[in-house]
Please model this.
Amino acid sequence: MPKSNSDARFSYDGLDRVIHEKARLGVLTSLMAHPKGLAFADLKQLCGLTDGNLSRHLQVLQEAKLVEILKGYEGNRPHTTCRLTAEGRNRFLEYLSVLEQVVRDAAKAADDEEAAAGNPRLRPA
Model:
């Protein structure tokens, strides 16, 4: 018999697999911190990725409509800028909300375990 959603409290369906991958999480966090976008080279440096690796992750994020990639020129040199789409920003914020719930649930479980063992943790105010 399938379990109800209340039985699967820790399933965290909102942890979007497209976002949850480490490199893409770094890309989206970097772009969230720079709403006007980032040059490809700056994004690469911030995330510690190679050109090819960043390109592939950006392709996945672009296909998911989370980022837009703008290609142009600065002077005579090609210039690529990456930025979050409105949908990307919303989905990222939803993802963070679920992630915050994961942290709260884990902290509560740790507190409950400590209390059951008779060693309540002291929490900072």
In short: Residues 44 and 54 are 6 Å apart (CA to CA). The chain has one domain: 17-116. The longest helix spans residues 86-116. Helices lie at 17-20, 22-33, 40-47, 51-63, 86-116.
